[in-house]
Amino acid sequence: MEDLDTASPAAKGSSKMMTLVSLVVLTLLAGGGGWLVGGVLAPKPLSVEEAKIVEEAKAAVAHKKAKEAGEGGDESSKKDEGLPRIATEANGVVQLDAITTNLAYPTENWIRLEVALLFKGTPDVAMAEQIHQDIAAYMKTVSLQQIQGPRGFQYLKDDIEERVDLRSEGRVTNVIFRTFVIQ
User: Fold this and answer.
1) Are strands 99-102 and 93-95 parallel, antiparallel or unpaired?
2) Omega into 43 within 30° of 0, i.e. cis?
3) What is the largest CA-CA distance in the chain?
4) Percent of the chain scoring above 90 in pLDDT
5) Residue 1 pLDDT > 60, yes or no?
6) 149-168 and 125-139 helices, crossing angle to 10°
7) Do 100 and 65 meet the contact criterion of CB atoms below 8 Å apart?
């Protein structure tokens, strides 16, 4: 019985010492691991030559932006650079104006859709405008539940392509969805 009482304080001191040693070892491992990961992930500092090249590139970009801003106030032509609104015979693509309308249900949700039509042969701008009006009218009948998720979007796309095919009598070969936003 006396052995148990005398052994107990030594065991307690040894247990505290082992806990302290394991804490120090784990702290050193964590610090070393952090230093290693930081060295791998952190970017290396730039040399003097590389810093000069970066500064020259920034200055060139700033100069180009200032030159573009000073050249003219016609920013609408720069904004609409992508596809032309009225296509030429060369590309056969007509970009329709954006369609923004509320959904059938819930009526507080709005949808914005930008579509381009790829014509077979010469584009017909009057037909493209009729197709635009047809798509806008159709979008007012769609509910949010019908177009949710990837499958819903695919159904919507198929419906619009079918309407375009019927309206154009096969003259439109492809409907290109440029933007599709629901708010």
Assistant:
1) unpaired
2) no
3) 108
4) 44
5) no
6) 140
7) no
Element (H, E) at 165: helix 149-168
CA distance 49 to 62: 20
pTM of this prediction exceeds 0.85? no
3-state secondary structure of 110: strand
Q: Sign of torsion, CA 95 101 103 104?
A: negative
Q: Which candidate, 115, 119, 120, 147, places its Cα nearest to that of 132?
A: 115
| Cα 27-32-38 angle, rounded to 5 deg | 125
Q: Which of 97, 114, 82 is nearest to 181 (CA)?
A: 114
Mean pLDDT over 93-115 rounds to 91
Residue 118 burial by CB count (10 A; 0-12/13-18/19+): exposed, middle or buried? Answer: middle
What value does the mean pLDDT take over residues 45-50?
74
The pLDDT assigned to 57 comes to 77
Phi, psi of 144 (to 5 degrees): -60, -35
Residue pLDDT, tens place only, 129-138: 999 999 999 9
Q: How distant, in Å, are the alpha carbons of 21, 23, 28, 43, 111 from that of 31?
A: 15, 12, 5, 19, 52
Cα 94 to chain centroid distance, Å, stands at: 25
Q: Which two tokens stand for residue 60?
A: 């060139």
> Between residues 146 and 36, which one has the greater pLDDT?
146
**Given a cut of 70, is residue 3 above it in pLDDT?**
no
